[in-house]
Amino acid sequence: MGKILIKFILTAVLTYGLAQVLPNVHLNGVGSAAVLVIVMGLLNATVKPILKIIGFPITVLTLGIFLLVINVIIVKLADYLMSSFAVTGLLSALIFSFALSLVTSVVDMVVD
User: Fold this and answer.
1) Which phi and psi (to 5°) does residue 26 adopt?
2) What does the alpha-carbon distance between residue 67 and residue 50 come to, in Å, rounded to a whole number?
3) 72: closest CA among 94, 54, 95?
4) Which of 22, 29, 67, 70 is the most exposed place for a label (fewest CB within 10 A)?
5) Where are the domains of the chain?
6) Partners of 86 in the beta sheet?
7) What pLDDT tens digit does each residue of the chain (112 aa) get?
8) Which regions of the chain does DSSP assign to beta strands (E)?
9) In angstroms, rounded to a whole number, what is the distance separating the alpha carbons of residues 69 and 61?
10) pTM of the model
């Protein structure tokens, strides 16, 4: 339980940091970042698998590049669901998604 809490807090703080550094990404605070981490986790657990199944033929044809589009859709869904989080533009959503994946991977490596 302790590792999960540490991962959650680190991810939320680093997500807030990303929003401060990246252009066109806005979060209202660390609390909003914590909510965003939860929302993104729920979207990744529920919506993303459905999108992967629906988009499988396109993913195969594009050699996996379509997965980037799915990640952008997830970020824009989180933007739509949260008033305290905003990402302007698809390129910004793609960069935020990629950066958040890197941050999450680093947190996982450090904590585990």
Assistant:
1) -130, 130
2) 12
3) 94
4) 29
5) 2-111
6) 26
7) 789 999 999 999 999 999 999 999 999 999 999 999 999 999 999 999 999 999 999 999 999 999 999 999 999 999 999 999 999 999 999 999 999 999 999 999 998 8
8) 25-27, 85-87
9) 14
10) 0.92
